[in-house]
């Protein structure tokens, strides 16, 4: 799937190079992960598995751009570029003396030319929710949370293409999802999607939110109820096949959380960074 490097035997994912020499699928050794199964809030104790961001992701992440709210390039009092972040990354707090001259020479960077991002919008002025009370009541028992909060709708209305972020930074909002739903299990997803089919509701799956293909944009002409299905509460490691370097995880796990979880397996190759690079914290 994707790069073509994975073969699926029913529910068993196996790297293609291993599958070529596999005579019997039962020969693949699987070990159950003993990591903590439940999600812990970002403010939890060190003994618990922490999450990269909470359900209200805009409390930690930028609502109209890439990365964490506290991290970015800034001009300090010395007139040099510095990377902020309060110790979040190894680069945080570093004064980059040569960065500004490089930008000025190569790209004509001018600190006097500023375009300020628009503040978060007046949530009462957002496009109205296209309600579907029958659907909401049908799925309420099968989700961790359901929301029609204005900020939740904005955060889940876009990916991270340049045109999407430019629109947000200039205060322009297109079609928004009407509800955001967080399922907690595979069964929840089945119930939510089945109810959508029965009640003519549109569903757009939402993971990390960094999509760059436009897949998270809501069609402007759509008049039916649109649901953004946020998968990030489904963040468990289901099993690890150490012999074949394969891990089976739920659809909403974030790369940082996958790395952070500890299993009782003696492997240093739990997570591969190919083909997607996962940012790491200091």
Write structural notes for this entry:
- This protein is an alpha+beta fold.
- The chain has seven helices and twelve strands.
- It has helices at 16-20, 99-107, 133-139, 150-155, 162-169, 186-198, 255-260, and strands at residues 6-9, 12-15, 31-32, 73-75, 81-83, 95-96, 145-147, 179-182, 202-206, 226-230, 237-241, 246-249.
- The strands form four sheets. It has a four-stranded mixed sheet, with helices on one face. Strands 3-11-12 form a three-stranded antiparallel sheet, with no helix packed on it.
- The radius of gyration is 22 Å and the shape is globular.
- The protein starts with 5 loop residues before the first strand and ends in a 22-residue tail after the last helix.
- Residues 1-49 have low confidence and may be disordered.
Strand order, sheet with most strands = 7-8-10-9
Work out the strand percent: 15-25%
Number of strands: 12
Largest sheet: number of strands, sense, barrel closure? 4 strands, mixed
Annotation field: number of helices:
7
Uncertain residue ranges: 1-49
Shape: globular
What is the succession of H and E elements? EEHEEEEHHEHHEHEEEEH
Supply Rg: 22 Å
Write the topology of this structure.
Blueprint: E1 6-9, E2 12-15, H1 16-20, E3 31-32, E4 73-75, E5 81-83, E6 95-96, H2 99-107, H3 133-139, E7 145-147, H4 150-155, H5 162-169, E8 179-182, H6 186-198, E9 202-206, E10 226-230, E11 237-241, E12 246-249, H7 255-260
Parallel strand pairs: 8-10, 9-10
Antiparallel strand pairs: 1-2, 3-11, 4-5, 5-6, 7-8, 11-12
């Amino acid at each position: 799937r994707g790069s073509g490097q994975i073969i699926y035997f029913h529910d068993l994912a196996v790297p293609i190079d291993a599958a070529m020499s596999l005579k019997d699928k039962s020969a693949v050794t699987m070990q159950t992960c003993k990591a903590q199964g439940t999600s812990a809030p970002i403010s939890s104790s060190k003994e618990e598995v922490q999450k990269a961001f909470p359900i209200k992701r805009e409390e930690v992440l930028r609502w109209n751009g890439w990365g964490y709210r506290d991290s970015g390039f800034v001009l300090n009092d010395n007139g040099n570029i510095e990377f902020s972040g309060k110790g979040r990354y190894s680069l945080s707090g570093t004064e980059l003396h040569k960065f500004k001259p490089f930008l000025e020479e190569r790209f004509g960077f001018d600190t006097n030319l500023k375009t300020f991002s628009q503040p978060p919008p007046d949530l009462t002025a957002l496009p109205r929710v296209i309600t579907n009370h029958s659907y909401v009541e049908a799925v309420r028992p099968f989700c961790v949370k359901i929301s029609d909060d204005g900020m939740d709708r904005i955060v889940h209305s876009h990916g991270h293409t340049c045109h999407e972020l430019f629109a947000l930074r200039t205060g322009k909002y297109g079609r928004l999802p009407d509800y955001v739903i967080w399922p907690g299990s595979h069964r929840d997803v089945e119930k939510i999607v089945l109810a959508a089919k029965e009640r003519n509701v549109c569903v757009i799956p939402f993971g990390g939110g960094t999509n760059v293909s436009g897949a998270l944009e809501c069609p402007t002409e759509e008049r039916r109820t649109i649901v953004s299905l946020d998968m990030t509460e489904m963040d468990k490691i289901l099993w690890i096949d150490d012999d074949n370097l394969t891990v089976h995880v739920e659809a909403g796990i974030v790369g940082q959380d996958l790395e952070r979880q500890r299993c009782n397996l003696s492997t240093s190759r739990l997570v591969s960074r190919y083909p997607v690079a996962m940012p790491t914290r200091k």
